[in-house]
Amino acid sequence: MRDVAARAGVSTKTVSRVFNDDPHVLPHTRALVEQAMRELNYVPNVLATTFRAGRTSVIGVAVPDIVDPFFASIARAIEDVARGRGLSTLVTSLGSDPEGERPAIESMLGRQLSGLVIAPVGVDHSWLERWREHTPIVFVDRAPVGLDADTFVEADERGAVAAVQHLIGHGHRRIAYVGDAVHLSTEANRLEGWRRGLAEAGITADEGLVRSGVSDREAARQAVAQLRALDDPPTALFSANARCSMALAAALRDEPLAIVGFGDFPMADVLTPALTVIDQDPYRLGTLAAERIFDRLGGAEPAGPAVAVIDVDLVERESCRTGAAPV
Q1: pTM for this one?
Q2: Alpha-carbon distances of 16 from 34, 46, 85, rounded to whole Å
Q3: What is the tens place of the pLDDT at every residue in 23-46?
Q4: Which of 236, 296, 304, 316 could cross-link to 136 by cystine, CB 3.0-4.6 Å?
Q5: Which stretches of the chain are assigned E, i.e. beta strand?
Q6: How far is Cα 46 from Cα 250, in angstroms, rounded to an integer?
């Protein structure tokens, strides 16, 4: 930086202001500095910048599974916002084991991130309080437990109510709930929405129709087999997330049931019949979370941590008619 300053005939502070795109630098001065940068092939010392600022120019992103299309879209949105601000992203998959969440996140936070966006899998986040003092942390899709923090979630309960009512409108009364990790806030709210959707139609929820832990094809096959073996089996299913829906698509191929899934996914609209879904907007969730990180970095302080609930929409396709299921 001193070499650039000497060649351009300015101070090192002016060089820094040009590199950081300070709008108050005069155009003539900016041109001199940029020319000197090009002639000397100047690039910033990222390590030195990190030491001065006390943090890296990186936004951390921790999601359950980066391969999942929903969480991949969230990560992509955060990356797009960060890149537009001159920062990069560091993404990690937390998996499904709540015990593995804390060490994975602490490993990221130890890198002195500029901010962190988390879609949590754990059951206690109170330990993050000390980190929040110097690192903006935003939760997305799932609310934290034991911690007040910026959070962006979807209308999980209302979406589940809409799904169940849509199936009831097609004549179904025995509607099963098929989910994965019911300890998570998203699924807990969707399960409550399943119950409320039935209750509002005067139907008593049969807890014997609830199946959890369905995250792959074999688990889906077993869940469907158990439901079919009941004395009074369901005629329809509410799938609590896209991963369950994808697993159920194979399990229902030969013996279809009507179904509505929470969350769209690639190819859902070209199944036969096409899958009716409660549509989420993961890219918007990621964008809002990233923008909140930069608001915090810029000194914007809402009156208390912000919790925003994003609406979801029913996308009606073909899978709700009696005897229908995706294949």
Answers
A1: 0.78
A2: 11, 13, 17
A3: 888 999 999 998 988 888 776 654
A4: 296
A5: 58-63, 88-93, 115-118, 137-140, 150-154, 175-178, 210-211, 236-239, 258-262, 276-279, 307-310, 313-315
A6: 49
Give tens-digit pLDDT for 83-105.
998 899 999 999 989 999 999 99
Q: Mapping DSSP to helix (H, G, I), strand (E, B) and coil, where does residue 321 land?
A: coil
The most distant pair of C-alpha atoms in the chain lies apart, rounded to whole Å, by 87
Cα–Cα distance list, 314 to 73, 159, 165, 179 (Å): 19, 8, 11, 18
Q: Could you tell me whether strands 307-310 and 313-315 are parallel, antiparallel, or unpaired per DSSP bridges? A: unpaired
Q: Within 10 A of 167 (CB to CB), how many other CB atoms are there?
A: 26
Amino acid making up residue 224: V
Write down the pLDDT at residue 104: 94
Instruction: List the Cα angle 86/119/107 in 5-degree steps.
Output: 70
Burial of 42 (0-12, 13-18, 19+ CB in 10 A): middle
310 SS3 class: strand
CA distance 266 to 256: 20
Supply the pLDDT for residue 327.
Answer: 37
Q: What is the pLDDT of residue 304?
A: 58
- 3-state SS of 131-147 is HHCCCCEEEECCCCCCC
DSSP SS3 for 275: coil
